[in-house]
Amino acid sequence: MISKARKVADYKQLTKELPTLRYVDPERVYINLQSDRCQTYTLDVKENDRVQLGQIIGERDGGFFKQPIYATVSGTVEGTTKKTHPSGIEVECVIIRNDYKDEYHSTITDRPENVIENMTKAEMVDVIRQTATVGLGGSGFPSYIKLDTDKKIHTVVINAVECEPYLSSDYRLIKDSPEEIFRGLKYIMQAVDAKKGVIAVKKTKTELIEVLERELTRFENLNIEIAKLADYYPQGWENETFKNALGIKIPPGTLPMEYGVLGFNVSTTSAIYEALKHNLPITKRHLTVNGDAINFPQNIRVRVGTCVKDLIKLSDGYSEDAKDIDFVIGGPMMVTSLDTDDVIVTPTTTSVLVFKSQDFHEEPCVRCGSCVYSCPVEIQPVNIMNAIKRNDKKALENLEVNKCIECGLCAYVCTSKIHLTDYMRKGKKLLG
Fold it and tell me: Are 194 and 264 in contact (CB under 8 A)?
């Protein structure tokens, strides 16, 4: 176990140290028209149409919200096709052949700082809505809904903890573009009239803390502080971050805004900066390519709609000794693996992890209690699993399965190698 932990740390350290590769020129992009949140859509372009970067080409319908769909390159529409979404479902995508000209749509225009400073909350929220800015830590929740709260917000927290193994794209984003993060935080504080901003980071990331503290001297007129948190998992869970950065304990299932707090991921903060400063939707994103089955782990800034196959090639392909491969899109603790690299990059894609497949034989539970002791929300995973096997909805309600944050710790510590996190997901679905 010690050697395994050291190996994981080495992989993460390697990608933290390497400069981010800028890969923004795929031959084609595949823009998802559907997602796990939005199944219906309208498409406003057809085959052979010319499009510009940042042009609205359609709209997704999420039921309680609608979301514009943007071209992430300039070029020619080649039709539609099916591709695998990072969530594992197959979705309809529009194909755009890149002309490599990056001709921006007329709506992509810079706003001077004095204009932004005089914008009302309604105006700022509308820009975030129109640019389809969403939570880029993986949730994909529309950011304008968060900002449009009628609750009194006293503190905005930027989550820079990034505690998932193998991931370091947020680390590189801060190191490469710290001003964007501070300006994004400034804009968010203005929008919700918050008097305080906090950037939460692990205290072990000393190099990153130096970058943040140096940049902070340029924003001394704002009440912003760097919160240095302990290094453990799941420190990056929003409620855990709030508890340790602010001393505020928010019960699971309760919205942070009820306590006067709003939280945003680092990448989301950068996207909000781009939206308000340049009127730019999310056309690119930073992500980590890593794992023991890839030849060259690295961080890459990619165009949204890039196919994962292209990123594998860009990382010198698969390791020679990698026969059967598991693909993980996102953090390895919280997502399930896929069996194909024909996956598209969406705005919420934080990483592409490629591992040599390992067979785990599930054994009967030995009642060791490791899953209970490790659970950050203090539920009982094995009892929930047994209730699912009995199809006992009443027991699932009493066992509070919906409190599960799907952090993956129960499955990780299980001595019997039971996929407990999958059972927690099934339990939530069973309750509806």
Answer: no
Polymer length of the chain: 432
Between these two residues, 325 and 196, which has the higher pLDDT value? 196
CA distance 233 to 240: 10
CB 331 within 8 A of CB 138: yes
Burial of 292 (0-12, 13-18, 19+ CB in 10 A): middle
**Residue 99 to residue 238: CA distance in whole angstroms:** 41
Residue 215 CA: distances (Å) to CA of 197, 208, 211, 375: 14, 11, 6, 36
Within 13 A of 226's CA, how many CA atoms are on the CB side? 22
Cα–Cα distance measured from residue 421 to residue 409, given in angstroms and rounded to the nearest whole number: 8
- The fraction of the chain above a pLDDT of 90, given in percent, is 84
Distance CA 70, CA 96 (A): 11
Query: Under DSSP, is residue 334 helix (H, G, I), strand (E, B) or coil?
Result: coil
Per-residue DSSP letters for 138-163? TT--BHHHHHT--SPP-EEEEE----
**What tokens does 134 get?**
């969403």
pLDDT tens digit string along 197-244? 999 999 999 999 999 999 999 999 999 999 999 999 999 999 999 999
pLDDT digits (tens, 9 = 90+) for 109-126: 999 999 999 999 999 999
d(CA 337, CA 372): 24
Domains and CATH numbers, the chain: 2-106+282-356 (no CATH), 113-278 (3.40.50.11540), 370-431 (no CATH)
Residue 344 DSSP one-character state: B
pTM above 0.90, yes or no: yes
